[in-house]
Amino acid sequence: MVRVSILYPNKAGARFDFGYYTESHMPMSIRLLGAHEGFRGVTVAEGFSGATPASPAPFIAMCCFDFESVKDFLCAFTPHAEVLQNDIAKYTDIAPIIQFNEVLLNVACGRAPAA
Amino acid sequence: MVRVSILYPNKAGARFDFGYYTESHMPMSIRLLGAHEGFRGVTVAEGFSGATPASPAPFIAMCCFDFESVKDFLCAFTPHAEVLQNDIAKYTDIAPIIQFNEVLLNVACGRAPAA
Q1: What is A65-102 written as a DSSP string?
Q2: Whole-angstrom Cα distance, residue B22 to residue B101?
Q3: What was the ipTM of the complex prediction?
Q4: Backbone phi, then psi, for A36, in 5-degree steps?
Q5: Distance from the Cα of residue B17 to its chain's centroid
Q6: Which residues from A are below 8 Å from B57, CB to CB?
Q7: Do A45 and B101 touch (CB under 8 A)?
Q8: Could you read off the pLDDT of A55-98 as tens digits, one per residue?
Q9: Which residues, other chains included, contact A32 with Cβ-Cβ below 8 Å and sequence gap of 6+?
Q10: Do A112 and B46 touch (CB under 8 A)?
Q11: Contacts of B51 (CB under 8 A, 6+ apart)
């Protein structure tokens, strides 16, 4: 499984509208990308601190899209790339850091890893 | 739900032993932290490219620990902090970027978000 991670660096004075992001942008993204059979899930998290409670979070938001393969992601994303990318300016002026990852380990609650 | 994210920046010449990380460090982490009733899951991903196939991944590895609350995480982690932190040098010389996040959205395969 591959994970496409989209990280928004927490820059002083930057704009990030969580209302628009979670109520409009992400539902649209999930409607457009989630229809592909290779879609495996997505999470969105809002950074609230660094390693210590008083330190700022290095990233204001992190989004992870999981797909069965890179090919599946590209097949799902490419037809909607322009619409989705043009929508970013509506919630932030931060240029996200995007990367592709191979998921090596995925343990859900209560399930122990193989020894 | 809170997510503790541990990101390892991809630095030239840095050391990262995925064998030790996935076969020793992470199983120990999961055994020690996963026993807590607030544990919700963990993922580990290996970055293989940036936004384009030819660009390097900004992070060589990303780990996300999910817990019901910060209190649950601290309760699970604190008794084992020294053991876990002392183990890091066995697989990498990279100082990880750690942050605490609130999980705003968590959609699994095939489950559509609320409209």
Answers
A1: EEES-HHHHHHHHGGGHHHHHHHGGGTB-PPPEEEEEE
A2: 23
A3: 0.92
A4: -75, 140
A5: 15
A6: 99-101
A7: yes
A8: 999 999 999 999 999 999 999 999 999 999 999 999 999 999 99
A9: A76, A80, A83, A84
A10: no
A11: A98, A99
